[in-house]
Amino acid sequence: MNGYIALLGSGEYLPVMDEVDKFLLANCGAKDRKPKVVCLPTAAGEEGDSSIKRWMQMGVDHFTRLNADVRAVSVSDKESADEQKHAEAVSEADVVYFSGGNPLYLYETMKDSLVWKSALKVFERGGVYAGCSAGAMILGKEMPNFRALGLNSVSAFGFVPAVIIPHFDATPLFFKPIISAARMRLKENELMIGIDEDTAMVGKNNEWVVMGKSGVHVFTKNDSKSYAVGEKFNL
Fold first, then answer.
1. Tens of pLDDT along 129-161?
2. Which of 1, 8, 124, 151 is the most buried (most CB within 10 A)?
3. Cα dihedral 43→169→14→1 (10° resolution)
4. For the chain, what is the radius of gyration of the CA atoms?
């Protein structure tokens, strides 16, 4: 990946992320024209048409308000992820944005798909990857396997060398053992990152900054460090 990456704990398409998204639009490689944004509701693919359409409309409304040329692409399953017209739409984007939902479903749907291959070309030429919640988790090295109650992990795309946990400051009580188990499985020099709600870590070339409302927390098996809004860090 040669462009910026934005990983959000929550808050996609809401005014709380305006600062983040304005930064991404200004740094996505678009020159002397409106930036092109593609919004993908794929992580909500199991939630039904109404949820998919809601995420698509939220993305269009949000980025239209920010003066971008935005298009929501209805990729909700493996079949639609392999449609050439969807892959072509993604290939034209400067910003590829994945909203939240089920991270395992999102990863399995995107893996080896035409749409994901098009997205990779966008990132390679300096475009932006933005992912919230599930969209953030798939960029990590691996993800807790919620189907197995977190007893093991599953592979993810590995662009960020860590396990990524969104909604970190609002983790439900029944999820805390899953997160603790994921941390205990960390080996020496492996990382877990917790991203608070309404917060993003934004960066490129392993230089990150915290944006939004709260904090980002970086864990090893035996140590941790937290970063507030405006603070910079490396992994």
1. 999 999 999 999 999 876 665 567 899 999 999
2. 8
3. -60
4. 17
3-state SS, one letter per residue, for the chain: CCCCEEEECCCCCCHHHHHHHHHHHHCCCCCCCCCEEEEECHHHCCCCHHHHHHHHHHHHHHHHHCCCEEEECCCCCHHHHCCHHHHHHHHCCCEEEECCCCHHHHHHHHCCCHHHHHHHHHHHCCCEEEEECHHHHCCCCEEECHHHCCCCEEECCCCCCCEEECCHHHCCHHHHHHHHHHHHCCCCCCCEEEECCCEEEEEECCEEEEEECCEEEEECCCCEEEEECCCEECC
For a pLDDT cut of 90, what percent of the chain falls above it? 85
Query: pLDDT tens-digit profile of 8-25?
Result: 999 999 999 999 999 999
Residue 113: φ, ψ to 5°: -85, 160
| Residue 231 CB contacts under 8 Å (≥ 6 apart), including other chains | 209, 210
pLDDT value at position 174?
A: 65
What is the pTM for the complete model shown?
A: 0.93
d(CA 168, CA 153): 18
The domain ranges of the chain are: 5-233
Name the one residue in this structure whose structure tokens are 């692409």.
73
CA 211 – CA 8 distance, rounded (Å): 9
Q: Assess if CATH 3.40.50.720 describes domain 5-233.
A: no
The number of residues in the chain equals: 235
Torsion, Cα of 97, 205, 126, 77 (10° steps): -30
